């Protein structure tokens, strides 16, 4: 049986993290990056969110792969390197192994430590498959190391789960241009990506503000995480969760709202928040099929093929797209 290879490219810089967080908290509109939602507890809370009846993306995407996986397999290059961006527990990519028959699996996530157990378990199920885990933060710049394999071999870049929605449109375009370059030069290479579509605002609202309060706990868990990272004194009781749809920007926004007038302090500084003042914690952009296909073309990809959860793609709630490089 082969052994997975692990490469850690991302190394936590606590000083840089502290500076990034404090600059966001002191901005005219206080904000933080959504990556700070995912400490150990935040990651477990998000897994719980995916099980909620209100949260449609995970199960809808899984149903699309189940219904159309064979059609997807006929489009992607055989015996390719499958490069899984934001791999997490690797389950989504692993569900495609039988149909896609990759020659190599490369799992990319911000922490290779999180990947080790998943890849070691996966290797036992697929003992002949080359596996590589790469610890990388690709939120600002994406470039694969040589351990990902030759760019002359066919590659399938895999980015499921609608995580592209966390990028602004400009950021998404820059990221997709990087992904296009990473597809390499082999004929047939391309990107398989999950995209959450514009839909009824009420359905979007409850997906990010569920009745059980799990999403609220996920958002509010950011507060103790920030306290640990910057030494601040934010209290859970002082803040509440809010999710809203911004139709002008076609995005769901998550915020933390102050329950009272308060001052947050940290070593060397402070910030006053009036009652109902917000910390903007996450965006999740929703796309039309035509709008996202246009974005892919601007990034350098060929015309995309689209599968959705509806008989007519234009009526779908979620889309999986294959775009040839």
Give an overview in words.
The chain is α/β, with parallel strands linked by helices and 325 residues long. Helices cover 34% and strands 24% of the residues. It contains 11 helices and 13 strands. The chain has helices at residues 14-25, 40-49, 57-75, 91-94, 97-100, 112-125, 169-182, 201-207, 214-220, 222-230, 289-298, and strands at residues 5-8, 81-85, 104-109, 130-135, 155-159, 190-196, 239-246, 251-258, 262-266, 269-273, 278-285, 304-308, 318-324. Strand 7 (239-246) and strand 8 form a beta hairpin. The model has no long low-confidence stretch (mean pLDDT 94).
Identify the strand order in the major beta sheet: 1-4-3-2-5-6-13-12
Shape: globular
Order of helices and strands: EHHHEHHEHEEHEHHHEEEEEHEE
What structural category do the secondary elements indicate?
alpha/beta
Strand content: 15-25%
Q: Bin the helical content.
A: 25-40%
- Average pLDDT score: 94
Question: What characterizes the major β-sheet?
Answer: 8 strands, mixed
Q: Give the end-to-end Cα distance, rounded to a whole number of Å.
A: 33 Å
Q: Can you count the helices?
A: 11
Provide the low-confidence segments as ranges.
none
**Taking Cα atoms only, what radius of gyration do you get, to the nearest Å?**
20 Å
Count of DSSP strands: 13
